[in-house]
Amino acid sequence: MEGQKTGIYIFCGIQTEEETAFGDFEMEGDTRTTFTIHYKDAAMVAAEVPMKIYHPNKQNLMMHQQILARVMKENDTVIPISFGNIFKSREDVKVLLENLYPQFEELFPKIKGKIEVGLKVIGKKDWLRKRVHENPQVGKIAQSVQRKSEAAGYYDRIQLGDAAQNMITGLQKEIEADIYTPLETEAEAAAINDPISETMLLNASFLINRDKEEKFDELVNEAHDKWKDYTDFNYTGPWPAYNFINIRLTVEEA
Amino acid sequence: MGVQKSTDSSSLAEVIDRILDKGIVIDAYARVSVVGIEILTVEARVVIASVDTWLRYAEAVGLLRDELEDEELSLENQENERNPQFSI
Predict the structure, then answer these.
(1) CA distance B54 to chain A (A)
(2) Of A59, A194, B54, B61, which shows the fewest CB atoms inside 10 Å?
(3) The pTM is what?
(4) DSSP strands (E only) in chain B
(5) Domain extents for chain A?
(6) CB contact under 8 A, A81 and B24
(7) Interchain CB contacts (distance < 8 Å): A and B
(8) Topology of A115-242 in CATH?
């Protein structure tokens, strides 16, 4: 690495006044060490790495997340930073931290001791098909499509697509009322993101107290017991509060 | 228990869903976008002094910008290095 310029990669903000290392990690074949950069009771978890753009390939993304997971095991107040930010010097990171401090001060008490969990509910194909066929409106259009040639049935097909979409929207509302709403009342905060596939009926994140984690797991399991014949649950965590911290910074051209 | 929480590092899709554009996000020339539903949303406009001090992949390939700017055109020949799943 001799002669190569290095920069400071930042992973997350934490609340601490003690210098802390969160171990070594591999970045594109070389071993790097984590350290903290401090301002008052806030710190950035960072590492010195070659100054270049890191592409979000699987290895790099997992490396970022693994460091955050490691930090979360030792610190209960973690503010996640998005992937791939590198600053020229420790001094620059310190300036950034000083600028962010008013936000950090406000956020620390709100996220202390809390974790994010994610719940995606995906409709099983067989069940969705069954629901489609039970729908009288869809059944009628489908029959009419079958009787016609492909060209003649063109508008019926569009209608069929509309009807299927309406049906999925209806199921999403049903799942929201039956699964999301009760979980929301148990969480500190909750958020629904857009589904990332056609058969996804719920894409939610919840911010929960660490000491309520087990209870929340149980509630998710109760919902799963009720819905497992019709849907698949994808339940993940603990995550840092990615879906509940939204700080956008602007970089100005010098 | 029927459904176990999978550990956060196990699924690339779950990781991507979060770490590219959530948490603290630093955008060059960004419009500030606010998501309405999160109760902890902090809208901050902290201006970092200079682009010179900072590097970010997403910016370099225009991931966070709508329109191409001149400097990006020179980056076009790097496009084939992009992982296709980020071309959305």
Answers:
(1) 4
(2) A194
(3) 0.79
(4) 23-28, 47-48, 54-56
(5) 6-112, 115-242
(6) yes
(7) 232
(8) Alpha-Beta Plaits (3.30.70)
